[in-house]
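Subject: design request, 254 residues
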């Protein structure tokens, strides 16, 4: 596989899998991608077609499909529902959850006050991903207490906030459109911070909410002609893999 495919798998699984957790004996990760020669190695033209992840209690299948209506490419489960969430709750793939939303004793100021976000610890320089599609309204600007801060405006009144960054991604600027999973910055410890981490906030119509508990809009589901074409593509990929519907039913029962 090439690095972009590895990154794609991390984006697909990032909100459901703890990449810092230990691998268990029964954990498996199957990936199927296109190749243009007999060597079996990915090239720049290769596409990640299918992923089957069995990690702990997670058992997910993702199929690549290009929507004929707008030619957009996304990944869907076997029922044609997009696996892409409206917003990622964990924008640091290798992050470790260290502090939740709510009142706490501030580690530097030494008195109790509201912690209006969640903290993800990771080594300095670790990538920070855009939680969702949107427009950058602040790009790494210094903000008191928050250090280098980036803000992204999403649809329906949602804004995501990324703080204590060491730097922003090259070329990132105010007014720029970004896609979910795009690298927008890097872990740092700027501002009021005791160590390298991302302080992540989610703001809905001007109110800061708990990113881990708020109910977010679900992904899109295919219907009509698009669903028919997706089912045809899914069956084609299953046939190439030698997987039958009966096999999936048995797997789900087990």
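Subject: RE: design request

Done. Sequence follows.
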């Amino acid at each position: 596989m090439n690095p972009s495919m590895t990154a794609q798998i991390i984006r697909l699984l990032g909100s459901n899998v703890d990449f810092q957790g230990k691998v268990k004996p029964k954990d498996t990760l199957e990936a199927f991608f296109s190749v243009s020669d007999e060597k079996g190695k990915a090239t720049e033209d290769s596409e990640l077609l299918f992923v089957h992840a069995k990690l702990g209690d997670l058992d997910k299948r993702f199929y690549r499909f290009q929507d004929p209506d707008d030619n957009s490419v996304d990944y869907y489960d076997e029922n044609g529902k997009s696996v892409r969430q409206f917003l990622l709750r964990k924008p640091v793939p290798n992050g470790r959850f260290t502090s939740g939303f709510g009142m706490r004793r501030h580690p530097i100021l030494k008195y109790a006050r509201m912690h209006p976000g969640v903290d993800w610890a990771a080594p300095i320089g670790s990538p920070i991903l855009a939680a969702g599609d949107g427009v950058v309204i602040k790009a790494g600007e210094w903000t008191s207490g928050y250090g280098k801060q980036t803000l992204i405006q999403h649809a329906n009144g949602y804004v995501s906030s990324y703080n204590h960054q060491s730097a922003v991604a090259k070329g990132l600027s105010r007014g720029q459109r970004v896609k979910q999973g795009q690298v927008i910055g890097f872990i740092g410890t700027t501002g009021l911070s005791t160590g390298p981490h991302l302080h992540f906030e989610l703001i809905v119509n001007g109110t800061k909410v708990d990113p881990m508990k708020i109910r977010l809009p679900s992904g899109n589901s295919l219907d009509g002609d698009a669903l028919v074409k997706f089912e045809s593509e899914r069956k084609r990929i299953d046939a190439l893999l030698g997987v039958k519907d009966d096999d999936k039913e048995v797997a789900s029962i087990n």
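The first helix runs from residue 3 to 13.
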